[in-house]
Amino acid sequence: MKLEEMIALIREQSEMFELEERAIKSCQQIIKQLANEKDDFGGYKSHELILKKDMQYLIFEWYLTEQPIIRTVIMMYVTDPDGIWLRGLQRIGYYHYECDLNGEVYNDSFVIEKSIWGESSEE
């Protein structure tokens, strides 16, 4: 099997299990849950967060699991009023959504990296 065929197969798996859509929905649910407790994401409010898929990749060997996983990375941004950041969006965090090759959720992580005050925090 050629590398291009392997990539096409992984992409097909991702689309079949709707991993991008599921990752965004899961991230939105976490934001909603955290906003109900305290609507503070590094000094930003939940309505200010912009979610965009950044990348998706296969981890075929990792000490944490014996099986390959597909990681979907959702970036969290806020609008950059100063126009310094690319596309007018300042990255403040990310969300990793990890599934096995059958589309079953393996793990996820939600991280706020940058606060309005320049500090870092993990949720």
Widest β-sheet, arrangement of strands: 1-2-3-4-5
Net shape: globular
Number of helical segments with 4 or more residues: 2
Order of helices and strands: HHEEEEE
Q: Report the end-to-end length measured between terminal Cα atoms.
A: 41 Å
Mean pLDDT: 88
Number of domains: 1
Which structural category fits the helices and strands? Answer: alpha+beta
Number of strands: 5
Radius of gyration: 16 Å
Low-confidence residue ranges: none
Give a short account of the largest sheet: 5 strands, antiparallel
Task: Give helix % range.
Answer: 25-40%
Strand content: 25-35%
Please describe what this structure looks like.
Helix content is 27%, strand content 35%. The chain is of the alpha+beta class. Strands 1-2-3-4-5 form a 5-stranded antiparallel beta sheet, with helices on one face. It is globular. The mean pLDDT is 88.
Summarize the structure.
This protein has helices at 3-16, 19-37, and strands at 50-59, 69-79, 89-100, 105-112, 121-122.
Topology diagram in text:
Elements: H1 3-16, H2 19-37, E1 50-59, E2 69-79, E3 89-100, E4 105-112, E5 121-122
Antiparallel strand pairs: 1-2, 2-3, 3-4, 4-5
Q: Which key features would you list for this structure?
A:
123 residues; alpha+beta; 5-stranded antiparallel β-sheet; 2 helices
